[in-house]
């Protein structure tokens, strides 16, 4: 096995497979390049050689096919990465979103020639409004982070419009995703960190002490990143609204409540949804995404444009011409149309009833897994709370007794054919494993995962070194992440090969 | 149990504070905190001459696991920063209480330091967090 590994590690970059004696006559232009080059202005002429790999078509195909075979994805492995909702995305969503009529549409095509796709987007706006209980939805943000930015930008626009410029603070719980405080700062706000109590709820007394006329709003994820539902959400909403602030809902964990509870009913004024997580787009590689925003009545005038509207049986683009207070455009066109279409098809396939089953099975799977881990002797971070769609193990006992920390368990899981759960997030829980099985895993796969963890626990007791050196079976072994972070080196230079 | 020197003062957010002879305060993060964060890869230092309130975030330490704010323990003005950390952030891991110091402040009110935790209180805090 070791030998095999070494062979794989020595996989060449496509540049290193290059052979400069290789020629392609069929691709060469049928002109005298030197003569043509003389007719071009001097400053436009390339001074150095073009750095392109000299490889044949079959080599290119093999190179990229080989890379793709190294993918660790939901199509090949169980992927319980907490807070990421790595669920199976039905093939139908992908196939239908790529119908030639959708894929071939030019983004500048007139709306009279785009009624089909506009009707899909219009229906999607409505479905998302109904699923979240918000007054209106704009589909244009092209990622979760952009949706967050749009959301807080609307909060800012609302206060600015009311000439309420004393509101300079956004409250963010200490368990929040790092994007929340980053978004607040991007929108010019000061971040106030709110503590969490030992049951995973936000500390109401601490909240009381920090709200006032300076409060622009609060950003919450519910269920939170701790995998538990914020039980005092109505009280929090009332407290924030009473002092004139607004509530932002981070849709990262929407999968847990789909069709069951609506953020609008909880009192939220603005919400973003990660359609690429919850609504059927394979993700995890940095995009593409879609982060639509939904708002309550008071933020409606500030929504980003364009949106699709319907008048006299015709769909048309709602722009800043009609919405003068809009925070504006977030992308060149209407957002990531392909992702939006997948979401539309997914929602149609599920139907209203199916959407509820998403939340039910996601929660059932999480609670089943939690119970199995508790029975296997692992420590649950919040044993008294029912899990939402995800839950946290703390491996602090194993770290202390056997010297095997969460990272060692995570790396060893890879050898057993499982993607590791989220590690060391949220930071509040020491040596944590944040696990989200999602609704699409079968019981047998969950059982297999528990079995692997039991075996690794045995290994930790008997021979902890095995964990410390893992993984053994992947294309690359344990990386030196300290060196990688301190001496970042991502570029390939020709001279390396020579 | 990690090393918690008796002569230092501590904060709930795991900074240590040493009162220097000239009345300035040297600040760093505790042995316990660096152990939790793991290998340091980057430190963002405060600006010399900037003033901070007690509890205000004024520096950032970034490890392989997470980026973490460092809070100013008492109100004061930054008079010196440990520039060596820019090239050698691992000094915080190697010796959190000496080479790993982060910045020095001139406190607005010298008595403020009395409000910080002593070594015994901090030991109790760390023990409580571990259980």
Describe this structure as you would to a colleague:
The complex is a heterodimer of chains A (498) and B (131). The radius of gyration of chain A is 26 Å and the shape is globular. With 498 residues, chain A is an alpha/beta fold. About 1% of the residues of chain A have low confidence. The two termini of chain A are 30 Å apart. In chain A, the strands form 3 sheets. In chain A, strands 1-7-6-5-4-2-3 form a 7-stranded mixed beta sheet, sandwiched between helices. Chain A has 3 domains: 68 residues, no CATH class; 260 residues, Aspartate Aminotransferase, domain 2 (3-Layer(aba) Sandwich); 130 residues, Aspartate Aminotransferase, domain 1 (Alpha-Beta Complex), CATH 3.90.1150. Chain A has 19 helices and 13 strands. Chain B is α+β, with helices and mostly antiparallel strands. Chain B has one domain: OB fold (Dihydrolipoamide Acetyltransferase, E2P) (Beta Barrel), CATH 2.40.50. Chain B has 4 helices and 9 strands, in the order βββαβββββααβα. In chain B, the strands form 2 sheets. Chain B has a 6-stranded antiparallel beta sheet. A 3-stranded antiparallel beta sheet of chain B has the order 4-6-7. In chain B, a hairpin with a 5-residue loop joins strand 2 and strand 3. Chain B starts with 8 loop residues before the first strand and ends with a helix. Chains A and B meet through helix 18 of A and loops of B.
Number of helices of chain B: 4
Give the end-to-end Cα distance of chain B, rounded to a whole number of Å: 12 Å
Order of helices and strands of chain B: EEEHEEEEEHHEH
Mean pLDDT of chain B: 94
* Number of DSSP E strands of chain B: 9
Q: How does the helix and strand content of chain A classify structurally? A: alpha/beta
Round the Cα radius of gyration of chain B to an integer and report it: 14 Å
The number of domains of chain A: 3
- The CA-CA distance between the termini of chain A, in Å, is 30 Å
What is the H level of CATH, i.e. the homologous superfamily of the largest domain in chain A? Type I PLP-dependent aspartate aminotransferase-like (Major domain)
